[in-house]
Amino acid sequence: MNEQPALPDKRQVAISFSRAAKSYDEVADLQRGVGSELLARLPVQLEPQRWLDLGCGTGHFSRVLATRFPDAEGLALDLAEGMLKHARPQGGARHFLAGDAEHLPLRDGSVDLVYSSLAVQWCADFPAVLDEARRVLRPEGVLAFSSLCQGTLQELRESWQVVDGYVHVNRFRCFSDYQQQCAKAGMKLLGLERKARVLHFADLRELTHELKSIGAHNLNPGRPEGLTGRARLRALAQAYERFRQPSGLPATYQVVYGVLQKACR
């Protein structure tokens, strides 16, 4: 049986991503690639009158959705006020809302598409996210999400295990949890897949800089304090070298893509 990971406090998530708002877009290659692939998985016949970008971040995909569905009304929602402050001046959505995916500040049956890319991995209660999406969707509305699951940044996790036994890497729920919870969501499952994406970095510093720049450095409960001194980081870099490939140091992300549709009345 897989142990359910302890996910970070939402306040810490909001603070971390708010701080990263200005630097996020400079290093968001993974986020752009995953979000674009999620868009490609939307049903071709989908023509929403109103869409919600759930966990909109800097608003990149709010602007993409606005271009793809020019006649629709767009809503962008994020937990991090700093992200919203960065996104609002750039447009895309008609309304930018501060809110929680587990408690959406929207009326029942008020949107046709809930699009959420690389946000719900920070939600401890994923069934609540699914329930809220089903509640706010109109009949035949679509929830499309991408997330991260167990095995993400496994190279970094294993390298830290060589150095010490502390939790230094964000923990994510296992893929089987997504399978079970989506099956119980009360919506038609159009697709659910796990797919690995591997990024390469010249050295460990480049990887850790990127994680900090997007606000996704270690946020989980039990993270060590004051244990990243020079000697420890040298040991980590040495342990990580065993994974080096011709393209550089690999960082593997296990990405989950899910598309669900609310039933007709």
Describe the structure.
The chain is built from ten helices and seven strands. The chain has a domain at 10-153 and 170-199 and 255-261: Rossmann fold (3-Layer(aba) Sandwich), CATH 3.40.50.150. With 265 residues, it is of the alpha/beta class. The longest helix has 12 residues, at 29-40. It has helices spanning 10-19, 21-24, 29-40, 60-68, 81-87, 126-136, 154-163, 175-183, 204-213, 230-240; strands spanning 50-54, 73-78, 95-98, 111-117, 137-148, 188-201, 249-261. Residues 20-27 and 223-227 have low confidence and may be disordered.
Structural class: alpha/beta
Strand order of the largest sheet: 3-2-1-4-5-7-6
- Please tell me the overall pLDDT: 86
Largest sheet: 7 strands, mixed
Number of strands: 7
- β-sheet strand percentage: 15-25%
Q: What would you report as the Rg, rounded to the nearest angstrom?
A: 19 Å
Tell the overall outline: elongated
Low-confidence stretches: 20-27, 223-227
Per CATH, what is the topology of the domain at 10-153 and 170-199 and 255-261?
Rossmann fold
- CATH secondary-structure class of the domain at 10-153 and 170-199 and 255-261: Alpha Beta
Report the helical percentage: 25-40%
Order of H and E elements: HHHEHEHEEHEHHEHHE
* CATH homologous superfamily caption of the domain at 10-153 and 170-199 and 255-261: Vaccinia Virus protein VP39
In the CATH hierarchy, the architecture of the domain at 10-153 and 170-199 and 255-261 is: 3-Layer(aba) Sandwich
Terminal-residue CA separation: 38 Å
What is the helix tally? 10
